[in-house]
Amino acid sequence: MENTESVIAARMERLQQILLWVGDADVARGLRGLPVAEFDSQPLAVRTALRTLRRKRDPATALQQPQYRPTAPLVAEALSESCMDAVVIALGEAADQPDRHQVLEALELVQDRFSASAIALMLAYVSVTDMAAADVCDEILASDERFTPKP
Questions:
Q1: Any idea what DSSP says for residue 113?
Q2: CB atoms within 10 A of CB 85
Q3: Other beta carbons less than 10 A from residue 51's beta carbon
């Protein structure tokens, strides 16, 4: 259990760093794109944090603060949805249980439509979920320099 918690904590930290790499402008756009229904389905503390983040000029930076950290996966999901959809389509039949090679091939197919930071964010989001590809995405993030946050 402790090992699992440390793995999740490390993946969440990487997600936070990639959100910073994506930048305030894109994070702000993603927050504005979150449907109201998504807000309403969240606990009060998360709803409040999301609404406050929407009004910030520097939401990616603000996500580093403890009160906003629980919203990071929701923000990442909203920002990476189109990239994830493109990767799932590229994976085709392998989408349910892709291996590393299949995910890398799918990323090659979509890399002309998405920035390295957008792809990294999608990989980081998947890595903090219970999706079948979570471990594969985490492994790619850890080993592929293209998806390492740049200053």
A1: T
A2: 12
A3: 11
